Amino acid sequence: MKVLIYDHTCAYLTPGGKTTHALKLQQEISKLGVDIQFARWWDQSQEDADIIHFLSADADMAKTAKQKGMKTFFSMIFDFESNKSERAKRYQRIKNRFIDKLPYSVSKSAYWKALPYMDMVQFMHIYDKSNAFAYFPRLLREDKTVLIPHAYDPAEMNISSHLDIKEMKFPDKYLVSVANISPRKQTLKLAQYAKASQVPVVFMGSHRDDLYYKQFMQEVDNKYVYYPGYVSKTWRDCIESHASGFVLLSLGESGCIAVYEAAAYHMPLLLSNKPWAWGYEHPTDIFFCDQQDSNAAIGQLRQFYEKAGKLERPPFQIHTWAEVAKKYIDCYESILRR
User: Fold this and answer.
1) pLDDT for res 10
2) What residues contact residue 111 under an 8 Å CB cut-off, 6+ apart?
3) What is the per-residue pLDDT across 94-133, written as a single tens digit (0 to 9) for each?
4) How do residues 11-20 score in pLDDT, each as one tens digit?
5) What is the C-alpha separation between 148 and 144, in angstroms, rounded?
6) Residues 6+ positions from 242 with CB-CB distance below 8 Å
């Protein structure tokens, strides 16, 4: 079996979870004996691939792959749509139907145009899947969809015994938030809530040198808002292993790898009270923040902090990348048998 991973996102322009997802898939699936490569547009030697695993929808490429006899697998990230209000969803579905009435030469760039050419569509959780079916009931089939969650890599944990957390000059008890400094992650809002609730939060994540980042940096006071920046894997391990809890007020995710990694450190989680945060398997210690209501959110953040502490087990059922790699291979084999 030969698999190509295809995407049009450039990691050097937009680093994030999609890059990690692709790298971990290639790393772990290849360990199980599958020839899995990143698609190289210039390399004709890849024409004997059996499957193209799409991380971005591309109707023309998927159609061409099918014509060449290849199978197609699509990891569908539907987080933005799943977390809209019901009114916004209805409006978007009307807008989509209008786009569908346009000539194909104009509408072919719409991501859902690729769905008829996919042999299998994967979702990270049930809320993405149910919303996608509501949007595209004629383009999706139950027997051609699968749920496979994100995961964590145990090889990136417990690697910081040589570091001293005291060098960071954090308080003895703190929360951590791992995410890009961006409006979607609502980093600035969380920083403001941290100050208002007098809860120390350590932020880790990459950033763009834009106005939003500059506004966030104005909140950094090294009393309640800490930002050591985009730290190394060893320092990240050190900081997370000493944190009492994890908080993320994102507007939308499809699983969120940082949440799985936080769970692997046995931290309780405070997440946005939105569909993306409701889809984790068998939750025991996930709490939800009404982030749109500042008074409620400030109180919830304070209450979470006061009770936060390391757990005896993960706050929901988690998997390693090695474990989910087997699920992907099962799907690959099933579409090859069709």
Assistant:
1) 80
2) 57
3) 999 999 988 887 788 899 999 999 999 999 999 999 999 9
4) 777 777 888 9
5) 13
6) 165, 170, 174
- Helix, strand, or coil (residue 226): strand
Give 135's contacts (C-beta < 8 A, 6+ positions apart).
81, 89, 92, 93, 96, 112
Q: Is 60 helix (H, G, I), strand (E, B) or coil?
A: helix
Spatial CA neighbour of 244 closest among 299, 328, 306? 306
Which token pair is 94? 């009307």
* pLDDT score recorded for residue 186: 97
Collapse the DSSP code of 149 into the 3-class scheme (helix H, G, I; strand E, B; otherwise coil) and give the result.
coil
Reported as type and span, the H/E element at residue 258 is helix 257-264
pLDDT digit string, tens, across residues 131-140: 999 999 999 9
Q: What is the pLDDT of residue 112?
A: 96
Q: What is the widest separation between alpha-carbon atoms in the chain?
A: 62
Query: What is the three-class DSSP state of 193?
Result: helix
- Please report how the helices 86-100 and 126-135 are oriented relative to each other, as an axis angle in degrees rounded to 10: 50
CA separation for the pair 284, 318 (Å, rounded): 12
The label of the residue with tokens 């959110």 reads 297
d(CA 244, CA 180): 21
> Six-digit token pair at 120?
């299998």
Would you state the structure tokens that stand for residue 205, as one six-digit string? 């994540």
Contacts of residues 34-43 at CB distance under 8 Å and 24 or more positions apart, as own/partner, are 34/1, 34/2, 34/3, 34/329, 34/332, 35/1, 35/2, 35/3, 36/2, 36/3, 36/4, 36/5, 37/2, 37/3, 37/4, 37/5, 38/4, 38/5, 39/4, 39/5, 39/6
> Cβ contacts of residue 335 below 8 Å, gap of 6+?
51, 71, 72, 73, 119, 120
Predicted TM-score (pTM) of the model is 0.93
Question: Token pair of 266, please?
Answer: 């046995």
Which residues of the chain register pLDDT less than 70? none
What is the Cα–Cα distance from 240 to 187, expressed in whole angstroms?
Answer: 18
